[in-house]
């Protein structure tokens, strides 16, 4: 059934053809949709996901447990709809139960924030949380979410080596809150692991974003190009 779900999402027309031509005994699309509706989808950290990660890390060696926490934010088009199953609105700000000040917000979401785990030793990437916000997430809230994400991953057996993001203003504010600084007289590219004080979590600005920033700087400043 799970394979049928994935196939129908990937190619609805291909799924329909195989079923109508009796090439494979596939369930009807209504049955597939009923199974989709049974899956609870929401913002915040999913406890069931971390239970599965605990089982996965239990079979890995120490190096395979190491990884990076990545997060990025994108702009979304505002929209509002009614969830007839739960009689609630979809499209509003939603941080799950993580940010107290954002609970029961009536603002339309126009930004999406995604947290993801990237293994260093395996070809394994896993989104661990998603949040919907009105405007970019503030630096202080980002810092809180990062700390919680690290603690949750560490509890499952994973080991966070570093955190990667782009150089947006809110991210730089978050770096300052965590004590990270790029200044010559106060350079610090890590902060203490909140789960294990004996280890450090290093902070990286992703390289593609740095290259894009340099390109834009050279394009807008002719004096730099001449020099």
Q: Please indicate the percent range of residues in DSSP E strands (runs of 2 or more).
A: 15-25%
Overall morphology: globular
User: Mean of the pLDDT scores?
Assistant: 87
Cα radius of gyration in angstroms = 21 Å
Are there runs of 5+ residues with pLDDT below 50, and where?
A: none
The tally of beta strands, per DSSP, is 9
Number of helices: 8
Order of helices and strands: HHHEHEEEEEHEHEEHH
Structural class: alpha+beta
Helix content: 25-40%
Largest sheet: 7 strands, mixed
How do the strands line up in the largest sheet?
1-6-5-2-7-9-8
Explain what this protein looks like in three dimensions.
The chain is α+β, with helices and mostly antiparallel strands. It has 8 helices and 9 strands. The model has no long low-confidence stretch (mean pLDDT 87). It is globular. Strand 8 (190-192) and strand 9 (200-205) form a beta hairpin.
Descriptive keywords:
227 residues; alpha+beta; seven-stranded mixed β-sheet; 9 strands; 37% helix; Transposable element P transposase-like RNase H domain-containing protein
Summarize the structure.
Residues 43-179 form the Transposable element P transposase-like RNase H domain. This protein has 227 residues and is an alpha+beta fold.
List the helices and strands and how they pair.
Blueprint: H1 2-10, H2 12-20, H3 29-37, E1 44-45, H4 47-57, E2 66-75, E3 81-83, E4 88-90, E5 111-119, E6 125-133, H5 139-156, E7 159-165, H6 169-177, E8 190-192, E9 200-205, H7 207-220, H8 222-226
Parallel strand pairs: 2-7, 7-9
Antiparallel strand pairs: 1-6, 2-5, 3-4, 5-6, 8-9
Helix pairs in contact: 1-2, 4-5, 5-6
Domain Transposable element P transposase-like RNase H: 43-179
InterPro entries: TNP-like_RNaseH_N
Organism: Macrosiphum euphorbiae (potato aphid)
């Amino acid at each position: 059934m799970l394979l049928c779900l994935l196939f129908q999402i990937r190619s609805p027309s291909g799924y329909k053809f195989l079923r109508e031509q009796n090439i494979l005994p596939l369930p009807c699309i209504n049955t597939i949709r009923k199974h989709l509706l049974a899956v609870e989808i929401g913002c915040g950290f999913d406890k069931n996901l971390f239970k599965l990660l605990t089982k996965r890390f239990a079979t890995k060696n120490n190096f395979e447990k190491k990884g990076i926490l990545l997060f990025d934010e994108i702009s979304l088009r505002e929209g509002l709809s009614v969830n007839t199953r739960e009689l609630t609105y979809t499209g509003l700000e939603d941080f799950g139960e993580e940010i107290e000040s954002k609970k029961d917000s009536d603002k339309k979401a126009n930004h999406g924030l995604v947290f993801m785990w990237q293994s260093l030793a395996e070809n394994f990437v896993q989104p661990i949380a998603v949040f919907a916000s009105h405007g970019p997430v503030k630096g202080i809230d980002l810092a809180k979410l990062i700390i919680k994400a690290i603690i949750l991953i560490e509890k499952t057996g994973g080991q966070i080596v570093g955190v990667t993001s782009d150089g947006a203003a809110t991210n730089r504010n978050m770096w300052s809150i965590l004590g990270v600084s790029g200044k010559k007289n106060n350079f610090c590219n890590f902060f203490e692991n909140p789960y294990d004080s004996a280890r450090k979590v290093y902070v990286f600005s992703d390289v593609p974003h740095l290259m894009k920033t340099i390109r834009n700087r050279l394009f807008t400043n002719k004096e730099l190009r001449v020099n």
